[in-house]
TrEMBL record, chain A:
Range of residues in the leader sequence: none
Subcellular location: Cell membrane
Domain Heme-copper oxidase subunit III family profile, first and last residues per copy: 27-203
TM segment ranges: 27-50, 62-86, 98-118, 138-162, 183-202
GO molecular function, one term: cytochrome-c oxidase activity
Topology of this chain in the membrane: Multi-pass membrane protein
Keywords (A to Z) from UniProt: Cell membrane, Membrane, Transmembrane, Transmembrane helix
One annotated GO biological process: aerobic electron transport chain
Protein name: Cytochrome B oxidoreductase
InterPro entries, per the entry: Cyt_c/ubiquinol_Oxase_su3, Cyt_c_oxidase-like_su3, Cyt_c_oxidase_su3-like_sf, Cyt_c_oxidase_su3_a-hlx, Ubiquinol_oxase_su3_dom
Keyword Ion transport found: no
Length: 205, 627
């Protein structure tokens, strides 16, 4: 479209917002994250209303190992930082560094997921299965929804890395990277709330 | 930039499966929504036949439960919402002077996920395990203890899949309206239908994720033995009520706001007057949307939330009457002093106003918590919500159908038949539901299969059934009108009502694929009317004629819908279908279905869509042929 042309071979200043398609994508994704906020809000509400219903199963206080969760939290927060570095590299049109930081982000995300799977495995052996109590069902659903989001993000960013290495950085790939970055931050913010509401508050009571 | 890419432009059936054109998707929504409307209507008539005499046994008690559940679910999710999406697709881009929606591919995906979700839900009739826990699916009735066939699985999965379609449709329209308006089309110059579509989309965005979670939790309870809503395992049945209504109440405003928009357009056009109090209309729409999230617990006055909660939700609910009243008076003042033309569309719009007021008044009665203890779960409630949904929304949809039919199909619906349809449907409607207020006040509970002779319910129920049949006749008359009209030549002019005020009437009926040969320059509210009043024949173009970039058609959305449909089946029947190796056959099929959908997403991401260009000579040919 004529309004968005740029000198051939030279990327505009903010390539993610250079085309109408790009701007639509970024705005649409902000709105989508608004919907996701309601989704997680409802999951939190369900968890908060059911978390004391432990029946015969272990309580949150007995179950949670804050050390493990703190390490997972540190890993995920760091991955948010590396995704910022990736977007900065994109704005400097440094494709190599962009891909590098995205790979670091994916690796950190995968490590987080690995720890979470280990954590769930451990809990099941402690007698805290999905069907044990209303507490366990709502716990696995809330934390599991977040984990599934992390998994989706890992697959997504991996696909973007492949695309970037094949197509390079242009006004089509830039919005995709930017939007994936937004998604990754959102996952991180949700985790901050999970860490506080599920794990820290679970230890307090 | 004007170089054509080799893109396949399908024709015939493949064109409809692959289209990303908002006008065609609008027609798809209309056909699918219309089909489900007929299914839901048939269910309604069966319900009324069962109730037309005391202790009737036309259908069994179980079938009756299935009928009321599927009638409510179908009408809300599969008829009303898609019909509104039909108008939003067909009209909103035209009203803001856009060539398409922001995400044409996502638009198509939204339609196909809705369609396959609806199909999944209705396959339950063929299989014989039909949802039967009411459209609200209250726990623990909807749990496996009391609904142990696959009926409620169809409800949970069908609505989940259809809900995805609605959610992405809502996001699409938000972005379209924010980002794609023509030059000069400021927010406060947007036609009121576009405004209501905008607010409705915002409500969809913030209400549907709550339903997603509710349905997912219910699905986990049913398929994977989770304990969200099972009190014996520590679950909480009232939690479902909260989650359902925190979605469910905004949902009724999602439905009614676009109807308000349609009525505003129709009344203004056929009164040949600017809409009275435009800015207060916009303000009232936003306020209704906002308050719509604050009132969900008025569905739960008798649940036992306590007097403080009940009082707060009572007051919040009554507050909604204020912006709604503003709207009613604005419509009346728009008609005041106008030179009113009673076309079929306008008959529906004018009939809407008093009917909706009646539904609103009973709404305020129900909002009073102490009184609600008397009305709760009686036919008074049934009468109330049918007055707002049928008397409000469905009359609005009929008004819109008659008004925009020429724009969508290039043919004006037969006016005589249209007026006969209106009177049949309108009289039938009041006959059916007015009397139900009194049935309710006399104490007839809703959702009952039979009632006893000699308690004064007989005559009123019979009158109600006669009314329902009359509404059925009205619907058939409308279908006849469609058939008669579609057999005529496609010769509607661009502005068939001659009093068109908004941008959709400046372009041919039906519009070319690219809508506007030149993007129009908007110089005020009622953009086209303003030009007419200044003696201009059309809009001032904002750009020279040039090649227009179009998105490519794609079959991927269709297969993404199919994938989810298959996955739904697999997970639902996993307990029944045995094993393949260590994995249950059903889970295997479910994973294949999900993988299909995900694979389509990957393909969409990896393969760039360059689209194609419609060249200048093709546009000039169109202009020469029609202008």
């Amino acid at each position: 479209m004529s309004a968005h042309t740029h000198v051939e071979g030279q990327l505009p200043h903010e390539p993610e917002k250079a085309t109408l398609e790009g701007r639509n994508k970024v705005l649409g994704f902000w709105l989508f994250l608004g919907g996701e906020t309601v989704l997680f809000g409802t999951l939190f509400a369900a968890y908060l209303s059911l978390r004391d219903q432990v029946l015969e199963g272990p309580t949150a206080n007995h179950l949670f190992d804050l050390m493990l969760v703190a390490i997972a939290t540190a890993i995920l927060l760091t991955s948010s930082l590396t995704s910022v570095f990736a977007i900065q590299a994109m704005h400097q049109k440094n494709v190599k560094s962009l891909i590098g930081w995205l790979i670091v982000t994916v690796v950190l995300g995968a490590s987080f997921l690995g720890l979470e799977i280990y954590e769930f495995y451990h809990y099941v052996h402690e007698g805290h299965g999905f069907t044990t109590s209303a507490f366990s069902s709502s716990f696995y659903t809330l934390v599991g929804f977040h984990g599934a989001h992390v998994l989706f993000g890992i697959v997504w960013i991996t696909l973007l890395i492949i695309q970037l290495s094949r197509k390079g950085l242009n006004v089509v790939t830039a919005p995709k990277v930017y939007v994936a970055g937004m998604y990754w931050h959102f996952i991180d913010v949700v985790w901050v709330f999970i860490f506080t509401v599920v794990y820290l508050m679970g230890k307090v009571v | 930039m004007a170089h054509a890419h080799a893109v396949k432009r399908y024709s015939g059936f493949m064109d409809w499966l692959t289209t990303v054109d908002h006008k065609k998707i609008g027609i798809l929504y209309l056909i699918a929504g219309g089909f489900f409307f007929l299914v839901g209507g048939l269910e309604a008539i069966l319900i009324r036949i069962q109730l037309w005499a005391p202790q009737n046994d036309f259908v069994g008690a179980d079938t009756y439960n299935e009928l009321i559940t599927m009638h409510g679910t179908t009408m809300i999710f599969l008829a009303a919402m898609p019909l509104l999406f039909a108008f939003m697709n067909a009209v909103v881009p035209l009203q803001i002077g856009a060539r398409d929606v922001a995400f044409p591919f996502v638009n198509s995906l939204g339609f196909w996920t809705f369609f396959f979700g609806g199909l999944l839900l209705n396959v339950s009739w063929i299989v014989g395990d039909v949802p039967d826990a009411g459209w609200t699916a209250y726990a623990p009735l909807a749990g496996t203890t009391y609904s142990n066939d696959h009926g409620m699985d169809y409800y949970v999965l069908g609505l989940q899949i259809a809900g995805i379609g609605t959610l992405i449709g809502g996001i699409n329209f938000l972005v379209t309206i924010i980002n794609m308006r023509a030059p000069g089309m400021t927010f406060m110059r947007m036609p009121l239908f576009t405004w209501t579509a905008f607010i409705t989309s915002a409500l969809i965005l913030f209400a549907f994720p709550a339903l997603t979670v509710g349905l997912a939790a219910l699905m986990f309870d049913r398929l994977f033995s989770a304990n969200f809503f099972d009190p014996t395992a520590g679950g909480n049945a009232v939690l479902w009520e909260h989650i359902f209504w925190i979605f469910g109440h905004p949902e009724v405003y999602i439905l009614i706001l676009p109807a308000f928009g349609i009525i505003s357009e129709v009344i203004s056009t056929f009164s040949r007057k600017r809409l009275f109090g435009y800015s207060s209309m916009v303000f009232a729409t936003i306020l209704i949307g906002f308050l719509g999230f604050m009132v969900w617990a008025h569905h739960m006055f008798t649940t036992g939330l306590g007097p403080v909660a009940n009082a707060l939700f009572s007051i919040a609910t009554m507050l909604i009457a204020v912006p709604t009243g503003i709207k009613i008076f604005n419509w009346l003042f728009t008609m005041w002093g106008g030179s009113i033309k009673f076309t079929s569309a306008n008959l529906y719009a004018v009939g809407f106003v008093p009917t909706f007021v009646m539904g609103g008044v009973t709404g305020v009665m129900l909002a009073s918590a102490p009184a609600d203890f008397q009305y709760h779960d009686t036919y008074f409630v049934v009468a109330h919500f049918h007055y707002v949904i049928v008397g409000g929304l469905v009359l609005g949809i009929f008004a819109g159908l008659h008004y925009w039919w020429p724009k969508m199909f290039g043919r004006v619906l037969n006016e005589t038949l249209g007026k006969i349809t209106f009177w049949t449907f309108f009289i039938g409607f009041h006959l059916t539901f007015f009397i139900q207020h009194f049935l309710g006040l006399l104490g007839m509970p809703r959702r009952i299969w039979q009632y006893l002779d000699g308690i004064g319910f007989n005559e009123m129920n019979m009158i109600s059934t006669v009314g329902a049949l009359l509404m059925g006749v009205g619907t058939i008359l409308f279908l006849m009108n469609v058939v008669v009209t579609m057999a005529k030549p496609k010769n509607a002019p661009a502005d068939p009502w001659e009093d068109g005020r908004t941008l959709e009437w400046t372009i041919p009926s039906p519009p070319p694929e690219y809508n506007f040969a030149q993007t129009p320059l908007v110089r005020g509210y009622d953009a086209y009317w303003k030009e007419k009043m200044e003696g201009h024949k059309g809009m001032t173009p904002a750009e020279p004629i040039g090649p227009i970039h179009m998105p490519s058609p794609s079959i991927l959305p269709f297969f993404m819908g199919v994938g989810l449909f298959v996955a739904g089946f697999g997970f639902m029947y996993a307990p029944d279908w045995g094993h393949i190796g260590a994995l249950k056959t059903g889970h295997f099929i479910g994973i294949i279905g999900l993988a299909t959908t995900l694979l389509c997403m990957v393909l969409r991401s990896m393969i760039d869509d360059h689209g194609f260009h419609i060249e200048e000579d093709e546009i000039l040919k169109d202009l020469g042929g029609k202008a």
